[in-house]
Design a protein that fits this description.
Elements: E1 13-15, E2 26-27, H1 28-46, H2 49-58, H3 65-77, H4 92-95, H5 100-104, H6 116-131, H7 139-150, H8 171-187, H9 199-216, H10 219-226, H11 233-250, H12 263-267, H13 275-288, E3 295-300, H14 307-322, E4 327-331, H15 334-349, E5 358-361, E6 417-421, H16 422-426, H17 435-443, E7 446-449, H18 457-472, E8 477-481, H19 486-499, H20 504-507, E9 518-523, E10 529-531, H21 534-543, E11 546-554, H22 566-574, E12 583-588, H23 592-606, E13 617-620, H24 626-639, E14 649-654, E15 668-672, H25 676-683, H26 690-696, E16 712-717, H27 735-746, E17 752-755, H28 759-767, H29 780-803, E18 837-845, E19 851-852, H30 872-879, E20 882-886, E21 914-921, E22 924-925, E23 928-930, E24 933-938, E25 942-945
Parallel strand pairs: 3-8, 4-6, 4-7, 5-6, 7-8, 11-16, 12-14, 12-15, 13-14, 15-16, 18-21
Antiparallel strand pairs: 1-2, 3-9, 9-10, 11-17, 18-19, 18-20, 21-22, 23-24, 24-25
Length: about 950
């Protein structure tokens, strides 16, 4: 750096689109300094202590965190160096301000266009070498730094990807690349290139570069800077550093220190923590000891044992021990995420966390009632992505972006606290754009996964791959489950340890058995396993001891069946609720169609009033419009929740939406046959709060009805009487698991399951790695269903293994994270296998031809404004009325018959909808025939398909 370099030519522009057209574009050197300043502030104020340590270690700078910080700033400060190329001529407004010298050196410049991210990848190594910043032996690290710069638009490229050399221009352009880089390096204290730069570390740094770029590329901020540039670049850099805290705060990314409260105050729970929770508070800190690289904390306990609060207590210990800030709480479904978001919000408020960044993270999160319409608006981030395509060919910007910066696309996980679906985290290990940003977001928090048993083999592989990366980053992980087979937990723990640096051949000879109920902590650095003390485990087992009565009722689906007719059996079982004492029952069906039929039968028999009219029979499933489903979920959880008021009589008919994380208590649970782990989950909604009520009093002072002498699960088993799995169940569940469950239920001694002692043996019997199948069993059907089950499981694991990014320590070049053909983005890969889904809007065609959102005809379908944009409130009004359905339902439909209005087609959300145009006759919506079936939206039943 001793050599004198030219002054950066500020006619080279960094931002042009979206700025004041009456002023020169924003100079590139200024944008680079903005990004470098923001990256330094992110290091100081956004990264957790754990992240800083991991990044420094990966650069070989564990003893010099200051230099590691400066290297991160250098990466951000050089991220757009590729714009010093033919890129400058992709904007007529920008290029007209270029100096005569630069325009004069364009004569031989290639007219073929390349992305400036790829140009940066190809040119920065030469720039670093010219500046003397990459000493001998540091060229591999310099190449890694180039990969980071090439990946700042979210996708890593191959280093060998060529560009036309002429696109870089002549010597004038080369001198300016050096001048820009030299200025950035000088203001950062000339950190140079580190001697090492491991791939996992480079991924985190890339995430930081992306985040820094996004924060300083906000339209309002650049317009503000554009209007008043400091004469000296050093002064500009100093102002950028002073602006960085404000930008971070406005984005909702400022870290908040919670005032940790006692258990009762923190969670608003009456009474003392249970033995499981107390053991975490008393014993986990000792188990963690002086560990330095995170660990896995596995909690196993029956439904209703307070695992969520147990996880949050563990987070307190783990975050303090390992220097993480905040947590992400992940669940299987949007419905369970919505409910948990409310619980976490209240817990944060009780601990002075009202200013903490808390986000709800799933594809429809912005529709949740927690996000008010008035808080939504337009917020542009001028990333420059796609500028190279020219002004006419740019990818259109989304019409709707949340005003709160964190609610924009791909950002919510960056918040200090986040609650959402597991899918949002699994995207981090799929070859999609900005997976590096997701890994950055997750690596700074304690990572909590609820219902860890609820994922199929495909998702389990993806979860294992993510745990591998988190192990490499030393992130503390909490896994919660009531019914997790030992083989699955063992694989997940080993994936984490392998990421933390343990050899797979050593791990292959170890097992990590978890006590039930209880917890197991496995240290990431040493691999040492510590379990809950036997005394506390015994206390928990005794405190939650329950004899669950299990009755198997052979049933026949459809017409006929006599005394075994399914609907007749259900009617007989719930008849005691008609007495003066009333009571509550939960009926869980495997399909929406079965739930609708069951509801109609019970409503006709016990209460002709509909759900909305306050009837005592309620219906809940996933095929209601979003706003209706949200309201019904709230009504069901309030009616069967812990606090009351508890109804005298209530029958809730539902699908699988109630089996996970919904806090319900029924006097009896009736369920269609399902895999045993899920039956136990459903049974967890029976007498869930009995111990609490016995100590603190029943809601309204009304105890259990006399007919409910104990917790009881009734399983409607179509196999028990020699029948088969109903055709309408399709591929809902594996036929092998259903048959094995039926056999296990038949073998339960005395018709009772001792909870918690009897849970894990049953789970292992059905869901464990049982390879002792009897190939000589009579009849070929058992062999057939077993083979189909195992074949599907192997296929799912193989597919996930092929699609996921490599394990953290197996990455050689960063393009391994995107090494699939095509431009994969989030909508092109899936975190779940199964039928693709689309969102359906049920609209109403009135007799006068108007198309409305409501049956009454009061709300017309919204149209785009004259500028082609939609008010956010209008988009939300539409999307809250949509329903997710299988895409094959509309596959045979005439595309025009289900197409959205023409003005919607360019909108990123509305343009993807299918619209069911229901004719209104005599005040009633008529069913529409699509693909041999009819669809209609019934106010009480939801979407009906016949």
């Amino acid at each position: 750096m001793a050599r004198e370099w030219e002054t950066p030519d500020e006619s080279v522009w960094g931002k042009s689109r979206g700025l004041d057209p009456g002023l020169p574009p924003y100079p590139l050197i200024r944008h680079l300094l903005d990004a470098a300043a923001m990256a330094l502030h992110l290091w100081d104020a956004y990264l957790s202590e754990n992240q800083r340590v991991r990044i420094a270690e990966g650069m070989g700078l564990a003893a010099d965190l200051g230099r590691a910080r400066a290297v991160v700033g250098l990466c951000a400060g050089l991220h757009d160096i590729g714009k010093l190329s033919g890129f400058q001529f992709c904007s007529s407004h920008g290029s007209q301000y270029l100096s005569a010298e630069l325009r004069g050196d364009r004569a031989k410049m290639s007219t073929e266009r390349f992305g400036h991210d790829v140009v940066g990848l190809q040119s920065v190594k030469r720039v670093l070498a010219d500046l003397g910043l990459a000493a001998e032996g540091e060229f591999r690290a310099a190449e890694r730094l180039a990969e980071v710069i090439g990946g700042h638009h979210g996708r890593f490229h191959r280093v060998e990807n060529g560009i036309a050399p002429a696109f870089l221009g002549g010597t004038t352009w080369a001198r300016q690349r050096a001048a820009h880089a030299a200025t950035v390096c000088e203001l950062l204290g000339a950190p140079g290139v580190p001697g090492a730069f491991k791939a996992p570390t480079a991924v985190l740094v890339t995430g930081m570069v992306i985040l820094a770029d996004w924060l300083v590329s906000q339209e309002g901020y650049i317009r503000e800077r554009q209007r008043g540039l400091e004469p000296a670049l050093a002064d500009h850099f100093e102002r950028s550093r002073k602006d960085a805290p404000r930008l971070l705060a406005e984005a909702g990314l400022t870290r908040v220190q919670l005032q940790r409260r006692g258990f009762t105050e923190a969670y608003g729970i009456q009474g003392e923590p249970n033995p499981l929770q107390r053991s975490v508070m008393d014993e986990l800190r000792l188990a963690v000891g002086d560990g330095r690289r995170g660990g896995v904390f596995l909690v196993t306990a029956a439904p209703g044992d307070g695992k969520s609060e147990t996880a949050l207590e563990a987070e307190r210990v783990l975050s303090q021990a390992f220097g993480t800030q905040g947590y992400v709480f992940l669940l299987p479904t949007m419905a369970t995420s919505d409910q948990m978001h409310g619980r976490v919000a209240h817990a944060l408020l009780r601990q002075c966390g009202e200013d903490a960044g808390l986000t709800l993270v799933h594809s429809m999160a912005w529709l949740d009632s927690a996000y008010a319409d008035e808080d939504l608006g337009v917020q542009s981030v001028l990333t420059g992505e796609g500028d190279e395509a020219g002004e006419r060919g740019r990818r259109p910007e989304a019409d709707m972006r949340p005003q709160r910066w964190l609610r924009g696309s791909k950002r919510p996980l960056l918040a200090q606290f986040a609650v959402g679906t597991i899918d949002q985290a699994l995207m981090a290990v799929l070859p999609v754009r900005h997976n590096a940003l997701r890994l950055l977001a997750l690596s700074g928090k304690t990572f909590i996964v609820d219902e860890a048993h609820a994922y199929d083999p495909y998702m389990q592989v993806l979860l294992g791959r993510l745990l591998n990366w988190l192990g490499a980053y030393g992130v503390p992980v909490v896994l919660l489950s009531a019914t997790l087979p030992a083989s699955v937990s063992d694989r997940l723990i080993k994936e984490y340890l392998q990421g933390a640096g343990h050899k797979s051949r050593v791990l292959s000879s170890r097992t990590f058995p978890a006590p039930y109920p209880g917890w197991l902590y496995v240290d990431g650095e040493s691999g040492r396993a510590t379990a809950i003390s036997s005394a506390r485990q015994g206390e928990q087992a005794r405190a939650r001891a329950m004899e669950l009565g299990v009755a198997v009722e052979p049933v026949v689906h459809g017409s006929g069946g006599g005394a075994w007719a399914r609907l007749g059996v259900i009617e007989r079982i719930v008849t005691p609720l008609c007495g003066d004492e009333g009571g509550t029952a939960l009926v869980v069906c495997n399909t929406v169609g079965d739930a609708q039929d069951t509801y109609l039968r019970l409503r006709e028999r016990f209460d002709m009033r509909s759900h909305d009219e306050g009837g005592s029979v309620q219906l809940l499933h996933a095929r209601f419009p979003g706003e209706v489903r949200e309201a019904r979920t709230r009504e069901v959880t309030e009616g069967l929740g812990r606090g009351g008021p508890r109804p005298l009589r209530r029958i809730v008919v539902a699908t699988q939406v109630v089996e996970q994380s919904l806090d319900l208590d029924a006097d009896i649970v009736i369920s269609d046959l399902a895999p045993l782990s899920l039956l136990l989950q459903r049974a967890g909604r029976c007498w869930r709060h009995e111990n609490h009520w016995a100590r603190h009093g029943y809601p309204d002072g009304r105890g259990r009805p006399a007919w409910a002498s104990g917790p009881r699960l009734v399983v409607l088993d179509p196999i028990a009487g020699g029948g088969r799995v109903p055709e309408q169940w399709g591929e809902v569940y594996s036929e092998y698991l259903l048959a094995t469950t039926s056999k296990a239920l038949a073998g339960i001694e005395g018709g009772t399951i001792s909870i918690p002692r009897g849970v894990q043996p049953l789970v292992e019997a059905v869901h464990g790695d049982n390879e002792d199948f009897d190939w000589n069993s009579p009849g070929g059907s058992e062999v057939k269903v077993w083979t189909a089950h195992k074949g599907k499981e192997v296929a799912e694991r193989s597919m996930a293994g092929l699609l996921a990014v490599p394990r953290a320590r197996s990455v050689s070049a960063l393009h391994d994270l995107h090494d699939l053909p095509g431009e994969e983005d989030e909508w092109e890969v899936s975190t779940r296998l199964g039928a693709d889904s689309v969102r359906l809007l049920c609209a109403y065609v009135q007799q006068d031809g108007r198309v409305t959102l409501d049956l009454e005809g009061e709300h017309l379908l919204p149209e785009a404004a004259s500028d082609g944009r939609f008010p956010v409130s209008s988009v939300r009004q539409v999307m809250r009325r949509t329903i997710a359905i299988r895409s094959d339902w509309v596959k045979e439909a005439d595309p025009e018959s289900v197409a959205p209005p023409r003005s919607w087609t360019e909108h990123p959300m509305l343009g993807e909808l299918c619209v069911l145009h229901q004719l209104v006759q005599g005040g009633t919506a008529q069913a529409m025939k699509i693909g041999g079936k009819t669809l209609r939206l019934d106010k009480d039943l939801g979407l009906v398909r016949e």
